[in-house]
Design goal:
With about 475 residues, this protein is of the alpha/beta class. It is built from 14 helices and 16 strands. It has a single domain (about 10-465), classed as Glycosidases (TIM Barrel), CATH 3.20.20.80. The longest helix has 25 residues, at about 205-225. The protein starts with 10 loop residues before the first strand and ends in a 10-residue tail after the last helix.
């Protein structure tokens, strides 16, 4: 097929994470994950980390949307939409409840056997994230999280365990979700399992943790390739697209520096196999020592990923002068007067996705997937039971159009998985009312609801998109 359209074998689907959907947080031998100690929150009241679970606090990830007991129903709905791929994660604490257990939890392994069997029944390819914001909380208590190199070998043992177990069911793997989250202290806990310490600068710990994860990723890539030559193992970057607020050279330089550290550094290491030159000055000026060893350097070079994936939701502006601010995924920035915003203040920028795709492919020249993209919004159930989420259709339509343009530009784009195909617990706020799915889940922020699944208008629209391989984006009345 000509590059004016998506490739014939393009992987259309959706993305979720175990911590956002599974629930059953202490069932069948599962241990606590970091997300199980994360309270509910909102745009106005951030989520809190509670080392000791509080009786009166709400922990939405404990229940998720009960995918653990309803996975057959949910996968059947994904199949009805025509999914070619389903991006999911395995909960580390379901396999090794404390992270450093001597033997894996068979009940946890068996659960994912059943999930993969169900996906195979519908010919849906699993795309598995090994660690997606769900490291065992015991590793936080005992080791202090990912700033401790001890977690490298524990992670590699976990990865080898699931590689061996599922080598016939899974081809596509991602080592860490949004690994570059650790370039900002916001990601210290959810990404690195390190307890928040607002009274001190955590950049040293965060970049040490990031380094340890990249070494662990590289080791896992090598192990995976030894186990199965058919494995394709990728990285996953949270791409925080930024533009200079003005043509002032100072704004351009600030934007470049932000982009280098927060967007490109982790990808450069995981794809190219070595730290980029610009990192040296940043580490020196910020008194950061990542703990690099000669062995680490060899490991990073030998454990380069096979493909590059990223999340994309919005863009922000950067400038030397202050101005009106906007919210965002991980961190905000300055408001762009040319863009509209979502109800949660995220700036909607479809063309930015084309810009990012070209930027990434120009830099790395390896296959790319967009593995998270979507609109969080409050959906209204009409008296007749229908849910008319035209705003979501419009958002996704515009982004798919820009992906199509990127394919015409020559980008080797292999897949697209929206977050989330079914309503789930928002990672940023812990809310249910911030809904992303094509499938509505009857569950409210206060825990009420039947958990009934219901198709939204976007369900049939996305089914049409997949059936036409991205050619038919029209919206019926």
């Amino acid at each position: 097929m000509e590059n004016s359209t998506f490739p014939k074998n393009f992987l259309w689907g959706g993305a979720t994470a175990a911590n956002q959907i599974e629930g059953a947080w202490n069932t069948d031998g599962k241990g606590d994950s970091v997300d199980d100690h994360y309270t509910a929150g909102s745009a106005q009241a951030p989520r809190r980390v509670t080392p000791i679970l509080e009786q009166d606090a709400v922990y939405p990830n404990h229940r998720g949307i009960d995918f653990y007991h309803r996975y057959r129903e949910d996968i059947a709905l994904f199949a009805e939409m025509g999914f070619k791929v389903y991006r999911m994660s395995i909960a580390w604490s379901r396999i090794f409840p404390h992270g450093d257990d001597e033997t894996p939890n068979e009940a946890g392994l068996a659960f994912y056997d059943r999930v993969f069997e169900e996906l195979r029944k519908y010919h849906i390819e699993p795309l598995v994230t090994i660690s997606h914001y769900e490291s065992p909380y015991a590793l936080t208590e005992k080791y202090g999280g990912w700033k401790n190199r001890a977690l490298i070998d524990l992670y590699v043992r976990y990865a080898e365990t699931i590689f061996q177990r599922y080598q016939k069911q899974v081809k596509y793997w991602l080592t860490f979700n949004e690994i570059n989250m650790l370039t900002n202290p916001f990601g210290a806990y959810i990404g690195g399992g390190m307890l928040p310490q607002p009274e001190r600068d955590m950049r040293q710990d965060c970049f040490r943790a990031l380094h340890n994860q990249m070494v662990a990723s590289a080791k896992a890539v090598q192990v995976g390739h030894r186990i199965s030559p058919d494995f394709r193992i990728g990285c996953m970057i949270c791409f925080m697209a930024v533009y200079a607020r003005t043509c002032n050279p100072a704004d351009e330089l600030l934007t470049q520096q932000f982009d280098q550290i927060h967007n490109m550094l982790a990808g450069d290491v995981q794809v190219r196999g070595a730290y980029p030159a610009y990192a040296n000055r940043f580490f020196e000026e910020n008194h950061i020592d990542v703990g690099m060893t000669a062995e680490d350097a060899q490991t990073l070079q030998k454990g380069r990923v096979d493909y590059y994936t990223f999340s994309y939701y919005m863009s922000n502006c950067i400038g030397a002068d202050s101005g009106e601010t906007a919210s965002g995924n991980v961190m905000g920035g300055l408001k762009n007067p040319y863009l509209q915003t979502s109800a949660w203040g995220w700036q909607i920028d479809p063309q930015g996705l084309r810009w990012v795709l070209n930027r990434v492919y120009d830099r790395y020249q390896i296959p790319i997937m967009v593995v998270e993209n979507g609109l969080g919004a409050e959906d209204r159930v009409e008296p007749d039971g229908s849910i008319c989420d035209d705003y979501r259709i419009d958002y996704l339509k515009q982004h798919i159009e820009q992906m199509r343009e990127a394919v015409k530009d020559g980008v080797d784009l292999r897949g697209y998985t929206t977050l989330g195909p079914i309503d789930l617990v928002s990672a940023s706020t812990g809310e249910m009312k911030k809904r992303y799915g094509f499938i509505y889940v009857d569950l409210q922020d206060n825990g009420s609801g039947t958990l009934e699944r219901r198709k939204k208008k976007s369900f049939d629209w996305y089914k049409q998109v997949i059936a036409s391989n991205g050619e038919d984006l029209t919206v019926s009345l």
